[in-house]
Amino acid sequence: MKMEKQRTLPMKEFFPSLKELVKPNYLKAMWPVAGVSIIFIALVAILALLNSNIAASLSMTMMMVMYGMASPVAILFSLLEIIGIVAIIAALAFFYTFFGVATQYTYQDKMAHPEQPVSAGSIWMHYKHLRKNQVWRIVLYIGLFTFLWSLPLNIVNALLLPRLSGVAAVYTGWAIRILNDIVVLWKSIEYSQSYFLYREKQPQFLGQSMRYALTASRRFMTGRKWNYFAIQFVLEFLPMFIWTLIFGGLAFYGVYTATYVLTYIGIVLVIVGISCYLPVVYAILALYYNKARAGMEMDVLFKDTFKPVAELTGEAYVHEVYVEKQPKEQPSPTVKREDEKKHEAKKDE
């Protein structure tokens, strides 16, 4: 289904609206968002470090098993520990994604109800009401489809690079990697409105495939991708990049001069600064959707997606009766000949 090109949002119009949305409740929103983000980063970093240490000890354990100095059961325990840590990291990632979606919904409701503050209480309320069994399927679909779109380039990279050498291998590898990043970025932009569009039609999603939210998002972003990218780049990426460049440079200077205090200070300031800016990021996402959807007919975006309720419940098939197909009767050769003779007689006449 082809969608008409949609109206884009000028930066001059978007920035004042963003300032009006974020500024009044920034501190109330900053503490829970930054606090949860910092705790999440710290836990993932600790678990990743622990996982790397177990992986390093696993190679030593395998060597000891080869020489009969350790039991093979030790390898099994190490593998189970690695799998357990990966599972915990995945669970934390899902929790943090749910928290981010709840924060975006809080800002969205803030635009509809200006009296509602964006605070720890309001974010927690949206988090509790979130249908996590549906949202996590949207997360998985986005990851799956983005992976499938990038898979052909990864296969080309794996097949082509071993046959090249020298400068050709380097430039080819970089070219494929850049193309792969462009594909991932493009699909991420296409699927960026899935959570909001799911919320628009949440009751209708009961029993339906969550990939319909991705389909609606692709249609929603028709003609808007470059506009969305420009707003995200200027208001989201550039501030965080400049902050990281300044204090990441301080951390690098600490490593270069062996002044490790500066390294730790730089890393901490990068994490804290980006975490404190996240309320603005979530507000940008919610504000863009609300402004872009103004005047749009939502049913058009979901056209030819949802299955009828009768099909989902099975009611449509209750009275269906199976009838075997009857084989077609083949005309006998004598009948064919008589038909041919009649046809030839008509021609002679």
TrEMBL record:
<feature type="transmembrane region" description="Helical">
    <location>
        <begin position="138"/>
        <end position="160"/>
    </location>
</feature>
<feature type="region of interest" description="Disordered">
    <location>
        <begin position="325"/>
        <end position="349"/>
    </location>
</feature>
<feature type="transmembrane region" description="Helical">
    <location>
        <begin position="29"/>
        <end position="50"/>
    </location>
</feature>
<feature type="transmembrane region" description="Helical">
    <location>
        <begin position="82"/>
        <end position="102"/>
    </location>
</feature>
<protein>
    <recommendedName>
        <fullName>DUF975 family protein</fullName>
    </recommendedName>
</protein>
<feature type="transmembrane region" description="Helical">
    <location>
        <begin position="166"/>
        <end position="186"/>
    </location>
</feature>
<feature type="transmembrane region" description="Helical">
    <location>
        <begin position="261"/>
        <end position="289"/>
    </location>
</feature>
<feature type="transmembrane region" description="Helical">
    <location>
        <begin position="228"/>
        <end position="255"/>
    </location>
</feature>
<feature type="compositionally biased region" description="Basic and acidic residues">
    <location>
        <begin position="335"/>
        <end position="349"/>
    </location>
</feature>
<keyword id="KW-0472">Membrane</keyword>
<keyword id="KW-0812">Transmembrane</keyword>
<keyword id="KW-1133">Transmembrane helix</keyword>
